[in-house]
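Dear V.,

Thank you for sending over the compound details. I've combined the ligand you provided, flavin-adenine dinucleotide, with the protein sequence from our construct and run the structure prediction for the complex. I'm sharing the raw inputs here so there's no ambiguity about protonation or stereochemistry in the SMILES, which I know was a concern on your side last time.
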Amino acid sequence: MKRQLSDEDAAFRQRMREFFTTQVPEDIRTRWAAGAEEGMDDLIRRSQQLLNANGLAVPGWPKEWGGQDWSTLQRQIWHEEMQAASVPPPLAFNANMVGPVIAAFGSEEQKQRFLPATANLDIWWCQGFSEPDAGSDLASLRTTAVREGDEYVVNGQKTWTTLGQYADWIFALVRTDPKAPKKQMGISFLLIDMLTPGITVRPIQLIDGGHEVNEVFFENVRVPADQLVGEENKGWDYAKFLLGNERVGVAPVGSIKRKLADAKTYAASIATPTGTLLDDPLLAARIAELETEVMALDLTVLRVAANSKDGKPDPASSILKLRGSQLQQDVLELIVDIAGPMGLQWAAGDELPGWATHSTPTYLNFRKASIYGGSNEVQRQIISGGILGLKG
Amino acid sequence: MDFTIDDEQRALRDAVRDMASRFAPPEERDKVPTGPRAHDAKAWTALAEMGLLGLPFAEDAGGMDATAVEVVLAAAELGKARVQTAYGEALVAASLLAAAGDQKALLEKVIDGSALVLPAFAEPMRAWAPHDPSVTASGGSLSGVKAPVPIAEVDAVLVTACEGDQTGVYLVDSPQVSDGALKLDGTAATKLNVSADDLDAALNLGIVALAGEALGAMDAALAMTVDYLKTRKQFGVPLMTFQTLTQRAADMYVSVELARSTVLYGAMTLAERPSDNATASRVKVLTGRTGRHVGQEAIQLHGGIGMTAEYAVGHYTTRLTAIEHTFGDTRYHLGQLARDVSDHAEVDVFA
Ligand SMILES: Cc1cc2nc3c(=O)[nH]c(=O)nc-3n(C[C@H](O)[C@H](O)[C@H](O)COP(=O)(O)OP(=O)(O)OC[C@H]3O[C@@H](n4cnc5c(N)ncnc54)[C@H](O)[C@@H]3O)c2cc1C
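Below is the predicted structure of the protein with flavin-adenine dinucleotide bound, written out as structure tokens.
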């Protein structure tokens, strides 16, 4: 056991910090920190392309496709420093999901065709897994793909497709064998160009008024068979790999810590009859509590990351997803309370700062964090079943 | 103590329920408003016509001579139906106008819905502190900023301001509200002849009205959640097969029942002692916490659908969040109660 970073890791951390705070343009970082929805696709694109040009977009990938020989701890440091500096992270659908799947299971031709463009966000991917009746029970998905010659014909509907309005391509789980003995066995992993005739994207508005998710409809969409990843009917294995392969970034510790620091600044700017909100014992106690909880998560991320067996899904990531989403939500809740009556207004003005008027919609929006990517109930089940052996 | 409602109260509740159903917001896709609700003049007129704006005020001022209990019963129906208005705020203003004694003409107009008068007490970059405004008054004119003002299309607002070390309540006619803020720069105002107790009593009425609305919202959010657990299927079975979900619904139910007792008790108590601040604070703390619990769980147990604008459950959560931050949030009221814990050995609900 050793508390400090090694000299090498400390130098690495310094290098990351320097890059993120000096090489990523200020306007990208401040607009990202402010949570701008307008033009956020552009911010993500600019950020990822800059990171990619510097070998920092897809460090977890195999080296020949742009990855880095970093330890898991170093990737963790990379991620935390990136979040601490409010740098828009590489698009998860590209960097953490479809990229690693193509790298692991795709054909050589697919790797060449897709990986460089995916790392550089020349292709914007969206994730077509969930369907109206296949949420937590993903394996019951019904979108079908029927082989006709050298094409698949896709019919059905995906939903909750995040940022699908910007996407060039979608990676979708489709049913290729409706007669398979287990429903997990008849699923395939298809790459589909969003411009293919027969695809319709329809926005879904969320309770904060924003538009980040969509429904995607497929009507006789003809997909070249060479866009199947790996083997037909093995899609479930690839999906499991995709959902479990990444532990770095599962808990957004860097961004939680930054938000909590922001919260203190906000609290210090709110006057009370005797001082500021930061002096209020009830509020200060809540911040102290959160700092302690976040520290415990920060340490657990480091401890778990250090022990990771690369590439293998590990139920320990469920601890990070569960606690990470909870603390992220707790900090946003704290900021709503700091904004107080100002949070009743959702539009900023010269008297009402943006952080305060955005606080309520942001808080409401992030209720999603305990639902997507495997809900907290599902994470608890993975922990109780996969770690504790409690399989009812 | 008796929590049963009488025939007259039941008739009021049923009438409000019927009216509210006509003004519930659409659940049609792409048509659902999100965020703070804009003023709905038609709904407001309906509230006025039913006498809701004058419920707890004297008949000779156009009121109904009822009490905070009736206010809570009516507000709960509005909350259930998601008719989100400035009802609680308007009652605060009306209560102050009534206390002033010499504002009868305006009070009548407020009650009959022909004038919209609301409090503008909150101030930007300042925590809720109704007795310590930063706006100053001097010789009948006001300076400073109030924000956010609940609705821009008000005919008049009531503003708290300091004159020396005295906090007073002032009436500002035809205020210019822009971007949610009212900037006062030597603005002419009429000082109301009201005491600090009157201000507390008015706010307490607003608190209990909003608590009633919150109760209705929680009832509805719970009912929707229970219904969803029965009908939504995953893994080939209804969600209610999973005990982890049904037990959480049970916890929500427990929370709501405790809130119901507290809100109804608060209404009865404030009907007798309008400036019983401790009771109002307890109501506020309990409904604040419960609203958060129920609002968050209602979304979580629905999964993704709970996050969408076209589905009602998230709107209840939005409204519960707003209610919690109106007239002092949980932290503020807990602070008030914490300050006074040594004043009493225990809380005697019959006292
Ligand atoms: C904002 C947002 C963005 C998303 N982005 C994407 C995306 O880009 N691509 C994509 O494919 N999907 C996406 N999703 C979908 C997300 O993965 C699903 O919402 C999630 O899997 C839950 O499914 P559901 O919404 O159908 O809820 P349900 O599965 O119906 O769950 C409802 C409730 O029941 C609980 N539950 C379900 N089964 C069990 C069980 N066995 N035991 C205990 N509790 C259970 C859930 O935890 C939840 O509380 C997104 C969702 C949201 C909200």
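A first observation: Residues 98 and 200 of chain A are 21 Å apart (CA to CA).

Warm regards,
I. M.
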